[in-house]
Amino acid sequence: MQRRAAAAYFAFFLVISVAAYAYIGVAESQRPAVSLDADAELTNESTFTVDGTEYTATNIHMSSGGGGGHGGGGGGSMAADLSWTNESSQYTATLEHNATTTYQNDTYRVHTDSNESTVTLEEELNVSGLLAEDSSVKNTLATQNGTEYVVYRSNNTQVPLSEWLPEPETVSFTTGDTYPYATDSGTQETTISDVSDSGATLEWFAPRENTIELSEGGNITLNEQRFFTHFPDHHTVQIVPIQQYDQYQETLDQQDYFHERKNGIWGVSILSGIAAVLMLGMAYMPVRG
């Protein structure tokens, strides 16, 4: 009698377990899918244009770390890079007061005057070079009481260095003037936009490469137009108008509800399977008496 009852319970729980498992397969076909009307659907190195600016998608990948798996799946989160060139980006630099700078391949010291809004460059004289060029004087200076002197070879006459040196060349600029600013890549034509006692601000416009990272559901602004991004698979990123974000979020909520219910059915299937095995085991337990 005990074995017949256990066998009946075994069959009952086995049917529930199998039925729940079968229902999971059927339910998967009803999983809510994100469906959006994207302005662009990009793969690696593909491009799209917004108001004349061309954007390029690169490095589409699954990043490490936790993730919700919406549209990208798995235990990480999808990411990509979006790059473009701003053809007229603003750059600035500062000429600091009393610092040295390169002007026409020579070294000058910078002097700024906020009252006059002027920048004056004063040539930095190469003392050792000038001494070497003048055969009438020695190549080294003499120092007495903190004052440096030039020594003539013929009679060892000494002249203060400040009196011997030629008048340094000076060049002046004012606010709004064009200034040839020396950079690592060459000379850049700039405009003096502001002058203070601490320095002068230079301004110019040139191309600039820009890159931002895209993430699942992340908002981006391109040429003052707002979008968000969605990864329908591991190789594609969609650029979607922000007006569809509420629809996107509603689908994600539906997916969360679906996964919650699916996990519940998995629980029923697993627990029923365990119960069926226990019932079968109990049927063969020894009976006292």
From TrEMBL:
Keywords: Membrane, Transmembrane, Transmembrane helix. The chain crosses the membrane at residues 264-285. It comes from the Archaea. Residues 59-81 are annotated as: Disordered. The keyword Transmembrane applies. Residues 64-77 have a biased composition (Gly residues). This is Uncharacterized protein. It comes from Haloarcula argentinensis.
